[in-house]
Structures are given as C-alpha cells and as structure tokens.
Design brief:
The chain starts with a helix and ends with a helix. α2 packs across α4, α5 crosses α15 and α9 packs across α10. Strands 33-34-36-35-37-38-39-40 form an eight-stranded mixed β-sheet, with helices on both faces. About 20% of the residues lie in helices and about 30% in strands. It is of the alpha+beta class. This is S9 family peptidase. One of its GO terms (biological process) is proteolysis. GO terms for molecular function: serine-type endopeptidase activity.
C-alpha cells in the first residue's frame, strides 16, 4: 500500500513507472505526464505450447505468481494512475453517488436471530463500521459478542471471515480468516467462556468446518499450495499442534471440489465432493470422530446428488434419471447402494429442484419454474397435499433462510424482488400462516416509485429468453432511456431478480435495469445450463446480444445508451460481447473477468482449471481447443472500434488471476481503433470479491456508475 500511496502523490514516481512498463518505442516518445496517456505494455516474445498448436503471447510476462515482480507492479500501478487521472474530472459525481449508495444502507442493523441450543444467534452492524459483529444472547437476554470482525481488521488492508461454526456444547467457536483476499484461510478457535483464541492454528485451508460431538475434534480441508484445490480432509483436535492434524481423506482426482459440513440434525459429518457432472458424499457418525467415513453412493459420471439426514434415513436430491432432479430417500443401513433409493418427489420436465430442507413432518423444496424461484411444501404423511408459498409480484425470489431445527413446523425463508427489499418470514407449514420477522430497512427508498416487469427476447435460434426489468414508475417506453443490462450465464448459476439497493442511483436517473436470464444459468431448468456450456457456450454470448436487440427494438432503451455489466465468468461474457457486437454498446463493465480462456485452461497449475474441464472443455483436446479459441476474448481482440470499457481486478484474486484482465487490456490498447476510454483498475489489496468492507464495496460501485454517467454527459 505504501507504494500505491506514493504513486498517487508523486509525478516523478509515476513517470518512472510509466517508463518501466512501456515498450522502448513508447519510452522514446513519452514527453507528457504519465497519467495523460494510456500505458502501453511492453511486448515480449513468448510461446504458449499446446498439443493442438502453439500461440504467440507477447503479454505473458504480466503473469507473476509471486505478485512481486517490479515490472508487473509498475504496469498495474501505471494503469491505476491513468484511471485516477481520468476519473478526477468527474470526482464530484463519484462522491455524490457514493453518498447516495451508502445513504441507502441502514448502518446499525441486526439479522433475524435463530435459536440453536440455549442461545439466539445473530449478526450485527454498527454505524460507521465496515465489518459484521457476531453475537448471541442467552435465555435472560444477555448479549455476548463472539467475534467483532472490525477488531480483526485493524491494521489490515483486507479482512474476511469465511466461515464460523460453534461447537455442539456451544463453548468453542471455530472460524476461518483470510487477510489477503486469496481465499486461503487460517483456522482460529475461540473459547467462548473466556473470549480468548487458542494459540494453535492451521493455515492454507478452505473455509469449511465440521465439528464432532466430542466438542474437541474438527474436520477441515487443506488446500494444495499451488493450485489451491481442496484436496485433503484433516482431523484436528483443539489445542494440539498443527502438525498433529491427521489426514482422513485425500482426493486424487483434481477435477473435484471438496467441502465438509455437519448434517442439519448434527448426527453426521459429511465430505462433499463435487464436479460439474458428478458428485460423491462420504459420511461419518459425529459421535465417532475416529471412525471410518462411508460412501453414500459411489461417484459415476453424469450422476449428481446431495443429501441430509433425518430420523435414520437420508433425504437425497439427485439427477438420477432426472435431468431437473428428483427427491429420493434411503435408510442409513442401505447407504452405498443406490439401487435401494426410493422415490419421494418425481422428476418434472417443467420444474427444476434447486434446493431442499428437511423437517420432522415436512419436506421443503426450493424450485425453479418459468425462471422464478418458489418454495413448495410437501407433508411426509400426505404428499398429495403439497402447496406453494404464493407471491403477488411478477418477478421475485424466495430462498431458504437458515433453518437449524428439524423438529418444527416453522420454515424460515427470504422473499425479495427488484422493488421489495429482502424480507424474512416464518411460515407455518401446518396452517399456511406466515409471520413477518423482518424487512430490511432501506433509508431514502420508496418502493411505490418503481415498477418491475418481465419480457421475453427471442434468441437467434428461436429460444425465448426471460428478462427481468426495473424502472421508475411513469417510465415511457419510447426508446429514449439508457439501459444497464446485467447477466452471468455460467456454471448453472442463475441471475435471480433480487433487490439491489445500489441500482436505484441509475434508475433514479432514468435508467432501465435489465437482468438477462441467458443460457448457461439454470433459470429455465437443467437444459438451460447444458445449452450454455462446452460446445454450446456461444449461446450465452448471443443470448445477451439478442436481449439487447430486443430491448432496443421494443423501445425500452436508446440504441446509443446501452451499458452491459458482468463479473468473473460474466466478465468473459463482456469480453466476448465486446468482440462480437461492439456496435450495440456504449460501454461495458467487466469485473474480475475470465478473458484468457485457452491459456488458462491449458495450465493445470492455475487454481480452478482442472475443476472446470466439464464447464469449458479441455483445450488439450479437439474440438474444444478450436471452439474455445473462437470466443476467448483475449485471443479474439481485433482491429476494430470498441465501446468504452471499465475493467477491474484484484491483485490477490485466486479465482480469476489478475494477469488475465491485465493482458486483455494491454492487447486492447494496441488494437482498438476508437477513442473511447479503456480503463483498468487493480485493487492491490483484494481478491475476487473486491474490497472486504461494506462501505469500501459501495465506493467501488459508485466508481462504476460514475464512469457510466460521465459517458452520457
């Protein structure tokens, strides 16, 4: 951070960094302040080798796994300085937006408490503080602060608590800390009777935690130090030295992710292994931490499942002969043999089962139908009497809250829409009655001033793409409004129409906000995902473009005022759209974008690569190499006009390495034939999720919105 601060205050240092990062030809002509001209990265010969052919990559040198190379840091800092100089012209607008956005945050807030054992647990925020405070209250209402993340963050440029789990006897708390943004966690254990942390810790872990019933044994996952893949399940006893942690399971297949957890009833510990098309669950009696894990069902390709335990049986969500998933069950004594699985809720072609929660008398399912998430309640003793939790809005989301008790008829869920702030309800599954527990307070917001709607765009192959819309009441559909269009479209992750308080700073200025539910997600069921991955991935990009064309044709937007935004794999979407249809966009915002697809997927030392061969394909093999190359944003940059582009990344990002967007921007600078701004910001102390503090994140959003609004002035 010291280097970064010096750069902001010293033009001499800026000029020096400019010279270090630029090519020799540029150095000879650099006669003005470094911030007045875009940095031009040096090109250095490098060959990316592949069984399918070699490629020249003159910007490969920007990859620095240590994040300490002087030339690389100089280039990133020069780009930051260039962006800072550009946005100085509209600094007042940025400050106004930041004030607006933060003004819609209730700064002193508390989550709805949930009962576990003798305590009510909740999370608090205090006015002016960036981070959460985890608290609990006893039966007399006495509150105990278990963990104040603001104190952990003191002196740190980044702080995140990835997970927190209290022991069964509620005397100890295990929590995972990341102070770099790289999602490599350190296990800490706190004695809740004294408030003191144990001196012994484990490092290099993923965030998952599972407790045994002895209140002394923990199961955690150790990551590979190079690939960061979750590979080894370790059994650790509280208070012992880190090197005493015992290996209990090691995953040899590097295409699987892994995590551990306790079943809802606390009776079992689970090791969950998950790959794009296959899963496997291992279970261990939580009363026997030194026992042997058993496999619930052996892995098979194109066979996925997840499970929870209830009254001696396993309730299972699975795609076994069911692309949209079905619900099944098996007695614990029959685990390991899926031929003994019995159907509970059959597969349906028009409904995708997203999630489930089990109770003594009911099964609750979170389903997708017509692109919306709703909740269905099925009584165990009368499945024919299943019912839905109703909604009056056209576009909405209902998802489960934290339900930690099985012996209850009360389901907690959260309802949200583009105009309705997150609202927590307690739903009586026996009577159908529901109680409002909390609606998030949003200062300076009046829901009656806005409207939400749905429309359907027709893709180039005839597929109907659902689109969720938000605009101000009184909006005139006359083709004059600016449009902010968002999508993701990968990994089966759906872009639901949640309430987003920040977006109203654009909507209040006349924008239409659109969420394009493009293929690659699962909004319309499993096939929606299958039609947007591997050798059908280009559907994701053309869907987004076709949604834009539809919204312009239907006069929701002015053709010269369309802005697109996406992050991570959604950043890939932005990069592909920039190459394929730049003329349709005034500006594109690509956050932590996955844009160097082929090179990354060829390199199995990079985190996440091997896990994702079934998402993108393995470019060592045909036809995947040529297909991926045909849309990879970095590889497809060409001599043409591009829209204005804002690119952001984090130096410590472990999901999409910073050097992908760095290389992409460097190449764009030498190829784009327009005069539109191309800005690149690297957060030098953050990872994939950006800044860790809640207000710091709001500032980053304000910067994005200011970039957009400045283009319209």
């Amino acid at each position: 951070m010291a280097l970064k601060n010096r750069l902001y205050t010293s033009s001499l240092v800026l000029s020096t960094l400019w010279l270090v990062a630029c090519s020799p030809a540029s150095q000879n002509t650099a006669t003005t302040d470094a911030t007045s001209q875009p940095p031009i990265a040096e090109q250095r010969p490098y060959v990316v080798e592949s069984p399918q052919g070699n490629r020249q990559d003159p910007y490969y040198w920007l990859r620095d796994d240590s994040r300490s190379d002087a030339d690389v840091l100089a280039y990133l800092e020069a780009e930051n300085a260039y962006y800072d100089a550009y946005r100085a012209d509209y600094a007042e607008l940025t400050e106004t937006l930041e004030s607006e956005i933060i003004g819609r945050i209730k700064q002193d807030d508390t989550s709805v408490p949930y009962q576990k054992g003798d305590y009510l647990y909740s999370v608090k925020y205090e006015a002016g503080k960036e981070y959460p405070i985890y608290v609990r209250a006893d039966k007399e209402g006495n509150e105990q602060v278990m963990l104040d993340v603001n104190k952990l963050a003191e002196g740190q440029s980044y702080m995140s608590v990835g997970n927190l789990e209290v022991s069964p006897n509620q005397q100890l708390m295990a929590y995972m800390v990341d102070n770099t943004g790289r999602r490599q966690y350190e296990l800490r254990i706190r004695d809740l009777t004294t408030g003191e942390d144990n001196a012994q810790t484990l490092t290099g872990l993923s965030a998952s935690i599972a407790w045994a019933k002895d209140n002394q044994t923990l199961f955690v996952i150790e990551n590979d130090p190079q690939t960061l893949l979750s590979t080894r399940v370790m059994k650790y006893r509280v208070g012992e030295a880190a090197d005493t942690a015992e290996l209990v399971y090691e995953e040899k297949d590097n295409t699987f992710y892994m995590w551990v957890n306790n079943t809802t009833d606390g009776e079992y510990i689970q090791i969950n292994l998950d790959q794009t098309v296959s899963t496997e669950v291992h279970v261990l009696d939580a009363d026997e931490p030194d026992g042997q894990f058993q496999v619930l069902a052996p892995r098979e390709r194109d066979f996925q499942y997840s499970a929870d335990h209830l009254d001696g049986r396993w309730i299972i969500r699975t795609d076994l002969n069911a692309p949209n998933f079905q619900m099944m069950q098996v007695a614990h004594e029959n685990i390991g043999d899926k031929s003994k699985w019995q159907p509970l809720v059959e597969h349906r072609d028009d409904v995708f089962i997203q999630d489930f929660a089990v109770f003594s008398n009911y099964l609750a399912m979170n389903e997708r139908s017509d692109g919306l998430r709703r909740i269905r309640i099925v009584p165990w003793n009368a499945p024919e009497e299943a019912k839905f939790i109703a909604s009056d809005e056209e576009a909405y989301v209902t998802v489960f809250e934290r339900n930690v008790q099985q012996d209850t008829d009360t389901l907690r869920y959260t309802y949200s829409s583009l105009t309705t702030p997150s609202t927590v309800y307690a739903y009586n599954m026996a009577t159908g009655e529901q109680e409002l527990l909390k609606q998030n307070e949003v200062p300076n917001f009046d829901a009656s001033l806005y409207e939400t709607a749905r429309t359907w765009a027709t893709a180039e192959d005839g597929t109907k793409i659902p689109v969720s819309l938000l605009y101000k009441k009184g909006f005139k559909q006359d083709g004059t409004a600016p449009l902010y269009q968002y999508a993701y479209g990968s990994y089966g992750s759906s872009s639901d129409p949640y309430f987003r308080s920040t977006i109203f700073s654009l909507v209040d200025r006349g924008f239409v906000y659109a969420i394009a539910h493009i293929r690659g997600g699962q909004e319309m069921g499993r096939q929606w995902y299958e039609d947007g991955k591997l050798l059908k991935k280009i559907n994701t990009f053309t869907d987004f473009i076709d949604v834009t064309k539809h919204l312009v044709a239907e006069k929701y937007a002015h053709p010269d005022k369309v802005f697109g935004m996406g992050g991570s794999a959604g950043g890939l979407l932005m990069g592909a759209v920039a190459n394929m249809a730049p003329e349709h966009y005034r500006g594109l915002m690509a956050h932590v974008p996955f844009v160097d697809v082929v090179t990354t997927m060829l390199d199995e030392s990079i985190p996440l690569t091997t896990n994702e061969f079934d998402e993108w394909g393995n470019p060592k093999n045909q036809p995947y190499y040529d297909y991926m190359l045909s849309y990879s944003p970095y590889d497809q940059v060409k001599k043409q006009d591009y829209p204005a582009i804002l690119v952001t990344t984090g130096l410590h990002d472990s999901q999409v390495q910073y050097f992908e967007p760095a290389k992409w921007v460097a190449k764009l600078r030498t190829h784009k034939t327009d005069a539109n701004p191309l800005m690149f910001k690297t957060n030098m102390s953050a990872g994939h999720g950006g800044s860790s503090g809640r207000f710091a994140r709001m500032k980053e959003i304000a910067e994005e919105y200011a970039f957009i609004l400045n283009l319209l002035q």
